[in-house]
Amino acid sequence: MQISYKTDNVVLASDVTSYTEEKLAAVERLLVDEGNASCEVLLSRDEKHQSGLIYRVDFTLFTGKERIHAVGHGESLMAALDIAKDELANRVRREKKLHVRVMRKSGAVLKRIMRFGSAE
């Protein structure tokens, strides 16, 4: 998976990139077609606030024709990465279940056509 980073008011350190790649490796295992997947990671910090959920992480995952987006807010950059990774994994699982459901329904329709000669 190709990963591109964008930052806004955050210094991109090597430990953050390695942690992000580790988290995205778990999501990559869930993908159906990981050969042409790419991910954009936006790391930002809200300068208006001094405490609270001041860090934001946006993941935008491109797989073929699909685009899956997840956002995480946290008190630290690592916490925001964890929240965004969990949301992204949930959305990838939902898309994967949708593909399986469509394949099963189309197989059932094809079987019905072969058996009775019409789709109704």
Provide the descriptors you would attach to this structure in a database record.
120 residues; alpha+beta; Double Stranded RNA Binding Domain; 4-stranded mixed β-sheet; 28% strand
Would you give an account of this structure?
The protein is an alpha+beta fold and 120 residues long. The chain has a single domain (2-88), classed as Ribosome hibernation promotion factor-like (Double Stranded RNA Binding Domain). It is built from two helices and four strands, in the order βαβββα. It has helices spanning 14-28, 77-116, and strands at residues 2-8, 37-45, 55-63, 66-74. The chain has a four-stranded mixed sheet with strand order 1-2-3-4. Helix 1 (14-28) runs parallel beside helix 2 (77-116).
CATH architecture: 2-Layer Sandwich
Strand content: 25-35%
**Strand order of the biggest β-sheet:** 1-2-3-4
- Counting structural domains, the number is 1
CATH fold annotation: Double Stranded RNA Binding Domain
Runs with pLDDT <50, length 5+? none
Structural class, please? alpha+beta
CATH superfamily: Ribosome hibernation promotion factor-like
Biggest sheet details: 4 strands, mixed
Measured distance between first and last alpha carbons: 42 Å
